[in-house]
Design brief:
disordered C terminus, globular, 3-stranded antiparallel sheet, mainly beta
Length: 118
């Protein structure tokens, strides 16, 4: 598991080595939806997802069993720092939620993770 350092800028982009591949993740706050939206692509420009809503505890890439155009090992997830689970709000990163890269088969458990980012 890797905690990705986020800011509360309304639009942010970062490149990370994830799943053995250089990956570009863009998170943007959507005022109309009241939610963070994610675009994830490989460094060669191959889009894995575009405009995917970031929901607490739900994998960004493989949510709802959607098949990816290209295989990718692992996933990204917004994880709440405490219970009950809430959706990440506009100023969530680093205060109420963390954004994680989790490797394939790695479970993220609220009880063991809570406070790890503090």
């Amino acid at each position: 598991m890797l905690i990705i350092p986020m800011t509360n800028d309304a639009s942010q982009r970062f490149t990370i080595l994830a799943g053995g591949q250089e990956t570009v993740v863009t998170l943007s706050w959507n005022d109309d939806a009241g939610a963070w939206m994610a675009d994830v692509s490989l460094s060669d420009g191959t889009a894995l997802v575009r405009g995917r809503r970031v929901c607490a505890g739900v994998p960004v890439l493989k949510q709802f069993g959607i098949r990816l155009v290209q295989e990718f090992v692992g996933d990204f997830v917004a994880f709440p720092r405490s219970q009950p689970v809430t959706e990440p709000g506009r100023l969530a990163w680093g205060s109420t939620h963390d954004f994680l890269y989790i490797e394939e088969g790695e479970a993220v458990d609220a009880a063991t993770f809570a406070g790890a980012g503090s």
